[in-house]
Amino acid sequence: MKVLKFGGSSVGNPERIASVISILENYITHKIEFAVVFSAFQSVTDKLISTANKAFKRDETYLHDLNQIKLIHHEAVQKLISKSITDSTAFKVADLLRELEEVLHGVFLVKELTPRSLDFIMSFGERLSCTIIADAMKSRNIDAEYLDARKLVKTDDNFGSAKVKFEKTNLNIVEYFSEHKNIQVITGFMGSTEAKETATLGRGGSDYTASIFGAALNSEEIEIWTDVDGILTADPRKVPSAFSLESVTYLEAMELSHFGAKVIYPPTMRPAQLRKIPIRIKNTFNPQHDGTLISGKDTGGEFSVKGITSIDDISLLQISGSGMVGVVGIASRIFSALADEKINIIMITQASSEHTVCLAVAPQSGERAKSVIEEEFKWEIRDGMIDEVVIEKNLSIIAIVGEDMRHTPGISGKVFKALGNNGVNIIAIAQGSSELNISVVINKNTLTKAMNVLHDSLFFDKQKNINLFVVGTGLVGGAFLDLIASENTYSTDISKAKLNLIGIANIDKMVWDRKGLDPKKWRNFIDNSTDKSDIKKFINVIKEFGFSNSVVVDCTASKIVVENYNDLLSWGISVVTPNKIANSQNYDEYKHLRTSAKKGKSQFRYSTNVGAALPIIGSLRELVRNGDEIIKIEGVLSGTLSYIFNSLKESSKFSEIVKDAKSKGFTEPDPRDDLNGLDMARKILILMREIGIKINLEDVKIEKLISTEAENASSTDEFLKLLADDDAKFNKMKEEALAEGKTLCYIAKYEKGEASLSIQKIDKSHPFSNLHGSDNIVTFTTKRYSVRPLTIQGPGAGAEITASGILSDILRIANSIN
Ligand code: ADP
Ligand code: ASP
Ligand code: MG
């Protein structure tokens, strides 16, 4: 025989209940005997509590809430019960609801709501659901019988969280089942006291009911059916990459649930463990999935860490003082003082010096716990042996759980490193002596980030997940998205890097999905989004997601994201961009970005700022890092100007070349943006800053290519017309050069701390003389490369090639994560 339990999430509406009954029919077909426990319908227990509280506060709208509760149940009766028994079910349900109404009215009148009466009120949830479901099963010809668990489960009178008296309970159950052979539909979550009063077993306690019955009946398996594929490595609402575990031990399940994994109620494991009965967690919405098996055996999966859980809101009490050192019994005095007040200690840590003890408690018990401890130690505090108790609020605990961790060295090191590298501050640490659990206390506002960071580092250490947020879907952004659509997993030096596209924003719209967007459909996502673009909001979403290895890819040419780089970088979010604005703004701001990245342990990568995917910035950095000294940098760093001057070799009309380049899409929409030299000036500036020279854009001397008149023309067409006035000038320069056996070239140069852009006559032996098309070229004359400079040449512009440079930067980030 099996004992099954279906939670509120499985019985959220009549349709779901019907599919649960289908699962049960399948068991019957396969001749599997079972008894089944149900929770209240989804969120009914919460509604009962809030309605009772309203009545207690004499808020008459409790009647409205009660009506809602009535409706939920009436609807279920209508939809699930066959005509022949509708009247009898409706009668039972109406009776229960009338009784509930009377009790609530009583609370309203006497303004009293004790834990005892609240337990009674809560019990209506399961009594109603099971009454209806048992009859719904009968309607489908199943021999089902309603069983009020209060008849059999005996408890103490600790209302709200009653302790089960197992001896009596087990006897009752065995006896009852020997006489009742129909399928029992058991009300979860409740029992009754000696005085026959209703007592509940604690929130989420229906799981426990299943275990109590399963153990008493020595059943072969207890199945807990819920809305996820078993116990996952983390709460999927916080960590989207969480996955389900095949098996865990009773101890692991207990520890995970104690530290917040709501999927199973912690005491559930106990009765099952004593009788060695396995518990299986299954998904009502995916019955084919095996779910997770909880048993005494560690079936030794791939991971020594089984899960990461959290208690989201706690307060930390710190008790310290010189009088605590070496004094026996301090901790036990703290425990018993708090136990007397029924304050639960979630976690305790003690520094090895014994100078400080830290206790984590639920936030609502924080102040009370502080005064209880201060009362307990009032003499020591008066004598200055113990300091006043310090309370810290808005904290969370994360627990990393796994029995096998004790055999795996280095887990705690990994935990601290992952958190440290991502700027999560650890406030306290506890490691149980069993090494089943490592717990860390952190600030609540870093919780999601910490959970994701830890999950990635503990479960995906062979694969780096990089989470991308792409801003700008123009030529470069579009090419980049197409590139990752064609391939999103890459082998890198250390492991595999998987690129997850999480969000996209452009000038009009934005879209995101914490589970990831299929990059193949990126255009649909952004086109169909109804969210208007708002970069601040987009950035807040990135922060809230808190994913590890988040990277913003700025493919805009505007300032809009640049203005947020410091914020992103210091928050721990890396930035990859071909946008040159950030690196060419004033020097202090340039430096500020580096400080922010250091602070956030994030990375700012911009190798495409100069020469697209050509390894220009990287090579320069390598040279400097390896102790070389840069004497001179010369380069044709603009694809457009390269094209224009290369074409001048064949043509006599400068203005025609510019027009041709524009029509081929080789220039900015307004070619003045290329011809004014600013683009190239920015690039030489970025290279100089890379080698440590403090210079600003206005320090770059630019020999103008176009007249002031042309520059100030009112339109692009007007400009192109005026440009023709200079054709003769350029032709003359070219002819003069030719006479000397030379050609013209527009060159950016750095030497002796100064930078300039100028038209130069170069002879045939010059490395720049056989430049083709729109190629870029740069030469580094250094101490080591002094005779023949180091030359890098190749296509230095274009959307696809820039996109591939962006990808390289991202993979560099993946490579440097550990
Ligand atoms: P039920 O109503 O079936 O008792 P609960 O809501 O009590 O369901 O528990 C299931 C929920 O627990 C899941 O929907 C999931 O969001 C949450 N949960 C938290 N941590 C975990 C975890 N580690 N594994 C699986 N689920 C988890
Ligand atoms: N209905 C109860 C609750 O919501 C018990 C349960 O769902 O397990 O806490
Ligand atoms: Mg539950």
Question: Approximately how much helix is present in the residues?
Answer: 40-55%
Average residue-wise pLDDT: 93
In the sheet with the most strands, the strands line up as 3-4-2-1-7-9-10-8
Unique bound compounds: adenosine-5'-diphosphate, aspartic acid, magnesium ion
Q: Beta-strand level of the residues, as a percent range?
A: 15-25%
Cα shape:
elongated
Largest sheet entry: 8 strands, mixed
Structural class estimated from helices and strands: alpha/beta
What's the N-to-C terminus distance? 49 Å
Question: What is the number of helical segments per DSSP (H or I, 4+ residues)?
Answer: 29
Based on the model shown, name its key terms:
21% strand; binds aspartic acid; 41% helix; 30 strands; 8-stranded mixed sheet; binds adenosine-5'-diphosphate; binds magnesium ion; alpha/beta; 818 residues; 29 helices
Question: Can you walk through the features of this model?
Answer:
- The chain is built from 29 helices and 30 strands.
- Helices cover 41% and strands 21% of the residues.
- The strands form 5 sheets. An 8-stranded mixed beta sheet has the order 3-4-2-1-7-9-10-8, with helices on both faces.
- The chain is α/β, with parallel strands linked by helices and 818 residues long.
- The mean pLDDT is 93.
- The radius of gyration is 36 Å and the shape is elongated.
- The structure holds adenosine-5'-diphosphate, aspartic acid and magnesium ion.
- Aspartic acid binds at residues 7-8, 39-40, 45, 125, 188-189, 203-207.
Write the layout of secondary structure elements.
Layout (H helix, E strand, L loop, with lengths): L1 E5 L7 H16 L4 E5 L5 H13 L5 H19 L2 H28 L4 H25 L4 E4 L18 H14 L3 E5 L2 E3 L5 E3 L5 H11 L4 E6 L20 E3 H9 L10 H6 L4 E5 L8 E4 L11 E14 L9 H11 L4 E6 L5 E6 L4 H11 L1 H5 L7 E12 L9 H11 L4 E6 L5 E7 L3 H13 L3 E9 L3 H12 L2 E3 L4 E10 L3 E4 L9 H7 L2 E2 L2 H11 L4 E5 L10 H7 L2 E3 L4 H4 L2 H14 L3 E2 L10 H10 L4 E7 L2 H10 L5 H10 L8 H4 L2 H13 L10 E2 L5 H4 L4 H8 L3 H13 L2 E10 L2 E10 L11 E8 L7 E6 L3 H18 L2
Parallel strand pairs: 1-2, 1-7, 2-4, 3-4, 7-9, 8-10, 17-19, 17-22, 22-23, 23-24, 26-28
Antiparallel strand pairs: 5-6, 9-10, 11-13, 11-14, 12-13, 14-16, 15-16, 18-19, 19-20, 20-21, 25-27, 25-29, 27-28, 29-30
Helix pairs in contact: 1-3, 2-3, 2-4, 2-5, 3-4, 3-5, 4-5, 6-7, 10-11, 13-14, 15-29, 18-20, 22-23
